[in-house]
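Appendix B. Chain record.
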Amino acid sequence: MRRLRNLAWLLALAALAAGCGEPASGGEGASTASTRVRTLTLGAYTTPREVYGREIIPAFQRMWREKTGEDVRFHEPYLRSGAQARAVIGGFEADVVALSLEPDVERLVDAGLITHDWKAGPHGGMVSRSVVVIGVRPGNPKSIRGWDDLRRPGIQVLTPSPRTSGGAMWNIAAIWGAATRGKAGRGASPETVVQEIVRNVAIMDKGARESMLTFESGVGDAAITYENEVLVAQQAGRAMDYVIPSSTILIENPAAVVDVYAEKHGNRDIAEAFVAFLGTPEVQRMFARYGLRSVDPVVAEETAAQYPPPADLFTVRDLGGWPALTERLFAPGGVFDRATERLAGAR
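Structure tokens predicted for this chain:
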């Protein structure tokens, strides 16, 4: 069995090296023989795949060509955030990572692959935001308004597993935070609130995108997810509504240059330029068109009507920061483990 797991991991790395079936993005036309062509490898999580592929990368290619005369091609496999971080540590040589949450970038710091202070730039190294919401069926037939409705007997909930999905870590943190702040639970302890919602989970997929596809297939009454996942589904014509709980967490998504690999490939200049480009108002408006909230105050003000703030919007810092939260909720024997143990015992 161990040999099979090792083989599966090697095959996954090989798929990343080949692009996971995603062709490298080309430029705005055929390169001439005299034009220098460079390749930047972006290791990103799956949720913002559409905005990167359709808008951000083509815009950067145009900007870089105008500035330097060089064509830049992108190698851009997408994976679940945690899996992407593990792949980079395992030898996938990404010049830049764009991941779901800070702890996945910190893994690369701990591995010695990111050596600069990636949080020193504007917005603390974050390039996009969202909030955790509850996707519901059109017309909200189950009258789901917030976290406590997901505790009701008979409600089928979808959320990916935080053991494999950064999005799921945001989901559990949102429930936990709302309960600890007295905005969910109706007197029940925060751990009980998490347990009761987990008890109603029908399918726990590996990643946020897989979970939404399961919901779109007709499974479940509610899906805990990123706001932008629902908005992208709606843009694609899929019938789905969503509810923003009155108390929920602000999702903050980081991007960073992977120093060791960018230096190895001679790509530090282009990698740094790409990460800086993600914070520009032009790109922040692109993120907003694909359901992501802006980190830029001016763009956030421009799009305020599209993205109203929840009544009680809190951050990971309000919950003690990622190290403390990870230890309490997701470490072996933590709140999530105890919730799934009780679920297994009940079944």
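Further analysis of this model is presented in Appendix C.
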